[in-house]
Specification:
about 750 residues; alpha/beta; 6-stranded mixed sheet; 23 helices; 28 strands; globular
């Protein structure tokens, strides 16, 4: 390995004798970066602001000849999608040995819900309500990806969304900001670990900043328009949470907010992110985000788009070439200054220093680690555990589940034998061809001789009569029908918005036909978003939401059906009854004409004339094989002062026959504010495990901090007055108390 002399000197300087002031605590590598910056030509500086993709063809990973040339001449600072040690080493050698200053490359990749070991999709992970497990999963993903030459992940995705038409809810934590904050922090900690410069951590990139989850009509990339209050209260906090947890980079989103594409928004990138929040990492665009500002209609050409982006504060241009092609001439013509470029470059170099790339640019390239660290037993066990905790039991009539092993079971439906779908939309390096199917997992636990299978239907709307006839014949000989239905994996994720959220018609028709057999039916549903399942809910006896559950998902599903696992997941997005209810979320406002579902016919009320207001399954909903009883909700006092706190306690008893985990949820409602407040807001949760007959007291502490919001004058603070407090198993089944926040 040849490290250029200039770098050796720099590293020596960096690590030994540069005194660090108070800013150095926040930007520990600023001086190192400044030293390096002094050596750089304008072109080399611009190079650090450029990222290009690699792709895989029949020969393996490749980058274009142009990209190779850019790396060699120092006009490319980051490569993404390359995740193979020998390939990445080759590119790093080009950067380190052939470019004048030898500045190492960043290697970015979408490591979203696992690398080789694939965990449930993010919406499923969130349904575990288990931040410790989610953090561990991100840690495993970092260990695996970093063993394959990756040092930067485009995660966590923390977009809040109330709209299941938007396919990217699969990648999100759901509709709640509080939960989103908790998970954002857990994921950043998991990816970045305690020390970014160790060779098994990834620099994280929180995305997609901002409000990307609120596109009009749920259509991906579409316009976002909202009040500053909603932006700050609902959509921004998970980004702030990630920043507080030390996230190293932020990705701008494709959408506009208030008429300006985020990639050109000085308000979002500079005023809020840098100045208000003091973000000290680097900012990268989403794929071709800069030149897309031409289509958005705020830039006439590439040069104008580049000016908007650099003025707003974008540091790295992902893929659009605008920076590489235009920044030099823009400096020459005085439209932007070299100081602006310097500022941007410093952030990027500091990121590279934080990864320790200047100490050892090859620290992520170790064939032995690549050979030994992927899908270890320990990683697979974690994938199983998280898949198990992400399963949500939506219905269990007459306690049909769990089934007894050895029951004559007919497994029907396309998802029973599909492998690719189990992994969901981002599979990084997931090897789907090796994984167990749901059918195989059921056969393993129930016995091959007791388990039969028919496909029954596919994902298209038409019912094939032959498939249905075969399914009826197969199911006719069984005691219980297990349906494995849902969406196809590519129906959610990026660019996968839907206007209809039902199962494919053929699948619903299939259930209708099978229902005529009068046999107990269990439906396992695999999907990347809340679906409208009213008809199916009425027809089947039991329903399990399985998402796309990952590498070990099939065994988790089978084990849940046969009682080795007691489901404990809870929904983090409301499941609407119909598309017309969207956007739908539990923390809506009361309105001046609230609807009372218990009341008589109420005409002039905020309601539909053809549908209940309530979703089919509310936020936080999920059943168990056992029964949890909530009682004795008590407060340490009926009021508390702003510098004091309130302790809320409740007893939970497992009154059923199985051991089980329960997510105990705490909500509040601020009854009168200087602006209207939601009817409920999640403010705490904890997941407990209880043996049959066991009781546990769960306590939460409420402080003034929990009651803060953007008041009428847009200051952030709490207002004294009366509050309702709710504790319970989901956002609608709750026990209530009251308290007052004193003046
Ligand atoms: C586009 C997606 O919006 C983003 O989530 C992803 O990280 C980038 N492409 C890079 O793959």
């Amino acid at each position: 390995m040849r490290v250029p002399g200039i770098l050796i000197l720099l590293v020596f300087l960096c690590n030994s004798c540069i005194p660090r002031g108070s800013e150095a605590d926040k930007r520990p590598y600023k001086e190192d970066a400044e030293e390096l910056l002094k050596q750089m030509t304008l072109d080399e500086k611009i190079g650090q602001l450029v990222a290009y993709t690699s792709h895989w063809d029949v020969t393996g990973p490749v980058v274009s000849n142009d990209s190779e040339r850019y790396i060699k001449d120092g006009s490319c600072g980051a490569i993404f999608n390359a995740h193979e040690v020998s390939f990445n080493r080759k590119l790093q050698e080009l950067a380190v040995n052939e470019s004048r200053l030898g500045i190492p490359l960043l290697f970015g990749y979408d490591v979203i819900h696992g690398y080789r070991t694939t965990f449930p999709i993010s919406l499923g992970e969130a349904a575990s309500w288990n931040p410790e497990l989610i953090e561990k999963a991100a840690r495993v993903a970092a260990v695996e990806a970093s063993a394959c030459g990756v040092n930067w992940t485009f995660a966590p995705m923390v977009d809040i969304s109330f709209d299941p038409r938007w396919g990217r809810v699969a990648e999100s934590t759901g509709e709640d900001t509080y939960l989103g904050n908790v998970i954002a922090k857990a994921k950043v900690r998991g990816f970045q670990g305690d020390d970014l410069s160790t060779n098994n951590t990834l620099l994280a990139c929180v995305k997609h900043y901002a409000a990307y989850g609120a596109p009009q009509a749920g259509r991906d990339y579409h316009t976002v328009d909202m009040s500053d209050r909603v932006l700050r209260e609902v959509y921004l906090p998970p980004f702030k949470a990630a920043i507080d947890a030390g996230v190293g980079s932020v990705m701008t989103s494709f959408n506009e907010v208030d008429g300006m594409p985020v990639t050109g928004s000085k308000y979002l990138l500079d005023d809020i992110l840098r100045k208000e929040w003091g973000f000290n990492g680097f900012i990268v665009t989403d794929y071709t985000g800069i030149t897309e500002m031409i289509q958005h209609g705020v830039a006439a050409d590439t040069a104008e788009a580049a000016v908007l982006a650099i003025n707003a504060g974008v540091n790295i241009d992902m893929e659009s070439s605008a920076y590489r092609v235009k920044l030099r001439s823009l400096v020459a013509s005085g439209k932007i200054t070299e100081e602006q470029i310097d500022k941007a470059v410093l952030w990027v170099l500091e990121g590279k220093f934080s990864l320790g790339l200047f100490d050892d640019p090859y620290r992520y390239f170790d064939e032995e680690r690549q050979e030994t660290l992927l899908s270890t037993e320990e990683h697979l066990d974690l994938a199983y555990e998280l898949a198990a905790e992400s399963l949500v039991l939506l219905k269990n009539k007459d306690k049909l589940l769990p089934l007894k092993p050895g029951t004559k079971v007919a497994v029907i439906g396309p998802h029973a034998t599909l492998q690719r779908d189990l992994l969901g939309s981002w599979i990084a390096d997931g090897k789907w061809k090796d994984i167990q199917t749901i059918l195989q997992a059921i056969e393993q636990i129930n016995g091959k001789d007791k388990t039969t299978y028919a496909k029954g239907a596919w994902f298209i709307d038409e019912t094939d009569k032959i498939d249905v006839a075969e399914a009826i014949a197969t199911a006719g000989k069984s005691d219980v029908i297990v349906l494995a239905l849902g969406e196809s994996w590519h129906w959610s994720g990026e660019a996968a918005s839907r206007t209809k959220l039902g199962l494919p018609k053929a699948q619903t028709d299939l259930i209708r036909e099978l229902k005529k057999l009068n046999k107990p039916m269990v439906m396992v549903v695999l999907n990347g978003r809340p679906l409208t399942l009213v008809q199916e809910y009425e027809m089947v006896d039991a329903m399990v939401e399985a998402w796309y559950p990952g590498t070990k998902g099939a065994s988790a599903i089978a084990d849940a059906l046969f009682g080795k696992i007691n489901p404990s997941g809870k929904l983090t997005m409301s499941f609407p009854r119909n598309v017309g209810q969207i956007p739908i979320h539990y923390n809506m406002k009361n309105t001046g004409r609230p609807y009372d579902p218990e009341g008589q016919e109420q005409k002039y009320r905020s309601r539909y004339i053809d549908s209940p207001n309530e979703p089919l399954f509310p936020f936080g909903f999920g059943l168990s094989y056992t029964d949890f009883i909530y009682d004795d909700l008590r407060l340490s006092s009926s009021s508390f002062a702003k510098d004091d706190s309130l302790i809320v306690s409740v007893n939970i008893t497992n009154a059923g026959p199985y051991e089980g985990k329960e997510v105990v949820q705490l909500y509040i409602r601020d009854l009168v504010g200087s602006v209207t407040r939601p009817v409920k807001e999640l403010k705490g949760f904890t997941k407990i495990n209880l043996a049959p007959g066991e009781q546990q007291t769960v306590s939460f502490t409420i402080t003034e901090e929990d009651l803060k919001f953007y008041r009428a004058d847009m200051t952030f603070g709490a207002e004294s007055g009366d509050f309702h407090l709710f504790v319970g198993r989901n956002s609608s089944d709750l026990i209530k108390a009251k308290f007052t926040l004193d003046n």
